[in-house]
Amino acid sequence: MKAILVREFGGPEVLKLEEVPTPRPGPGQVLVRIHASGVNPYDTYMRAGNYPVKPPLPYTPGSDAAGTVEAVGEGVARVAKGDRVFTARTLTGAYADHALALESQVHPLPEGASFAQGAAVWVPYATAYFALVHAAAARAGETVLVHGASGGVGVAAIQIARSRGLHVIGTAGSEKGLALVAREGAAHALDHGKPAYLDEIMRVTGGRGVDVVLEMLANVNLGHDLKLLAPRGRVIVIGSRGEVTVNPRDLMSRRASIHAFTLWGLTEAELAEVAAGVVAGLANGTLRPVVGKEIPLAEAPRAHVEQMTGGAHGKIVLIP
After folding, report:
1. 94: confidence class by pLDDT, cuts 50, 70, 90
2. N or C: which end of the chain has fewer CB within 10 A?
3. Element (H, E) at 107
4. Tens of pLDDT, residues 115-124
5. What is the pLDDT of residues 274-295, one digit of tens each?
6. DSSP string, 139-163
7. Residue 278 carries which DSSP code?
């Protein structure tokens, strides 16, 4: 089979398409024929060698994919050969035309969702779901600010928030991105490249501020976020690329809080609950992944470059 291999940590150029043996599923394992693989920001950090999780070299990147079950190992009962599935992590990596996964790591992909959409599910939607439902304990009627709302996690957050009765303010950095944010249901779509956008957030909330902030780039925005919070507001840190200085008084005066997490730190029980919620949303149509760009698997280096470029519009997926 063909797979992207990383033999040394470094820039996008270390992503190489190679021929490797196709794995066989053992007990409790599933072999998936991949039709599309999702590209996530953490993939780029891991490839560069500056992510907390450093896989042993060589490795195949990626956790998100969608395709059909090609074979199952002994004891597998939840899926069968030919089933359409998406993966929530894998054993062998998703940047390939086949991937081996545990039975617990594959979930049904509804007929109404394309394989490209299936590849855009796990990390974005699981992250947004845990951030809103678990970390923020967001309640219907509250206002949530989604930074970078035109990206994969941002779109997922808008859809999940709207399905749970929250009022959404979303930011983006391009006209195309702003149009997407509005189309997905944000009440206000604001350009975070304009200096006055922070004042606009306070204006549209009547000076009260927001109850929840989903923060994708804490090293840039966290200090400003704290000044936007309503009483008892919560900032949920989803992503950061460096250190940041904040004033604790902004939290103290509001009785506010900052929470942070990674999917890697979730317990098996939490992962199962998140997966159930995401699968239900896909099945009933409230969750609809937006694919911004499909790129051939062989061009994975280009996908990583574009992933880290501003002006996101949906999810980038790789096609074997």
Report:
1. very high
2. N
3. strand 106-108
4. 999 999 999 9
5. 999 999 999 999 999 999 999 9
6. -TT-EEEETTTTSHHHHHHHHHHHH
7. H
Residue 40 amino acid letter? N
According to DSSP, the residues that pair with 72 across neighbouring strands are 30
Q: Quick one: pLDDT band at residue 52, thresholds 50, 70, 90?
A: confident
Which residue, among 160, 139, 136, 171, has the nearest Cα to 257 in the 3D structure? 136
d(CA 260, CA 238): 6
**Residue 293 · residue 316 · CB < 8 Å:** yes
Question: Exposure string (b/e) for 11-37, b if CB count within 10 Å is 16 or more?
Answer: ebebbebeeeebbebeeebbbbbbbbb
Structure tokens at 232: 């008892």
Query: In terms of DSSP bridges, do strands 15-19 and 167-172 run parallel, antiparallel, or are they unpaired?
Result: unpaired
Contact criterion met (CB below 8 Å) for 30 and 100 = yes
When computed from its CA atoms, the radius of gyration of the chain, rounded to whole angstroms, is 20
Exposed e or buried b per residue across 144-177, where buried means at least 16 C-beta atoms within 10 angstroms of its C-beta: bbbbbbbbbbbbbbbbbbbbbebbbbbbbbeeeb
**Closest-CA residue to 3 (of 114, 123, 15, 12):** 15
